[in-house]
Queue: 2 jobs
Job 1
Amino acid sequence: LRRRAVDHLTVRDYIWRWDTDWFWCSRAFGVQQPLVRALWPRRWRRSDVYRRLVALDRRYGASERLRRLRGLPPEEPVVQDVEIPVARLPEFLDAFHTDVGITPVWLCPLKLREPRDDSGAVIGPARTWPLYPMTPGELYVNAGFWSAVPQEPGRPDAHNRRVEKLVARLGGHKSLYSTVHYGEDEFWRRYNGTAYRALKERYDPRGVLPDLYRKVST
């Protein structure tokens, strides 16, 4: 980044840019540890392999049984990507590190920009995303964190709900790459249910496909 302003990837490298190690998921299997990495065949250090392992674990609960045998509490997965206005980011991180405590936290700035011509001149107002309210021209920071923390007794989604409420309080929003713990009414308030229903009625009037809430909450 210090030596070049522009870099290029081949199409193959762009498509597979998360592999061979799928950046966050491999950590859960210890594949970022040198000894485990040396023993884990290279051809199996891929996201599709990790996905299958995760699916098998969720189906049979092997990791939860192992935690019980070790006398450890069950875990709550916290897999979130959230956008926070840059001025509120320190407040978000302070609360997050105190109440959730996952590390690392990945930070990536983003902004809705005005369309420009080839010379760089602005040719119109910044576009908005109807289902994802962000203020055009305002700098946000995406904070990503993907791990698990010990469950609070009787509250299996306590940390995720804490994150959702904190993001809302700070004027942020979270991408639907994240796991969703909103109730349905709250979800549609945050993701412009009125606009979505108009689109759904136009392009899927018979309801052949599940709606957005059903897709991301189940």
Note: The first helix runs from residue 11 to 15.
Job 2
Amino acid sequence: MAASPLRPHPPANPAAAVRTMQTRSIDTATSAYAYPLLIKQLLLTPLAHSPEREICYTHLSRYSYRTLRERIGRLAKGLAGLGLDAGQTVAVMDWDSHRYLECYFAIPMMGAVIQMVNVKLSPEQILYTLNHARADALLVNAEFLPILDGIADRLETVCTFVLISDSPTPALPARFAADYEALLAAAGQDFDFPDFDENTRATTFYTTGTTGLPKGVHFSHRQLVLHTLAVAAALGGAACQGRLHRDDVYMPITPMFHVHAWGLPYVATLMGLKQVYPGAYHPERLLRLIEREAVTFSHCVPTILHMLLNHPLVNEIDLTRWKVIIGGSALPQAMALAARKKGIDVFTGYGMSE
């Protein structure tokens, strides 16, 4: 009987046919461009579709994504001029700022590792994390100089210090090689960020959720890019409640030294959102920024939300467009009801630092 064109005879050697299909599949895959999942790729979309969207730091700084990319290049070139290179670790001690966002990109894009120093640790714990991470350089906000003064003589590997300051003309302490803004101003912007293995370590931070000394955690470029895509898809796929979209205005209220601020600065950058960085967390400042910059999306722990809900200024500000992810600990029912009463779209998330 002739074989039906709709039901052809099975191959004489099924195993050989499977091997042939696998070979064809492998040949097709290897002929494609092996596009590495690197943090620098997260900048491509916002530069294409929203290059003039703003990045704000309190009332002190306001610039576009185009300028953000320029400053990232200048920071990398400045750090390279100080002798820092791929594979080295650059630690950062700062409040939430546009400078921290620049470090989130420039340092790992060089092939170096950014260590986000938890400034809420004790000086002895900060010393331990810097020595354990074998940090080569330290970018430190002037507010934390008293901490540095107490531990500097016991730093084992840090050789280069850069001062971060909101002052336009800061006094440079003796051990410091440069001031952050002066470093950028003196550097060219055309830094050639190379491709490299996407499994290269990009970030290091220390978690204190367990007993004993702080525990180091690190993430690769691949992990961070995949996390960014996953969070963007999860939040962007929501029909309404908790949805993050391109017209949102983002302000972190989870410190940038804590688990990459839950990864949201990378997500906000990929999506090209207007971003607002508040510096240190003062309740009046946070509420004023929400009002002035029309912030619509944030994330924080319950204690921060409690602080804001109980500040007198909260009764003068419209919070009905504000969406807030709560994490770090359980959201009490009473707090959730109080937030909902103010019109806040509050919801919870959970994840481990590791």
Note: The longest helix spans residues 14-31.
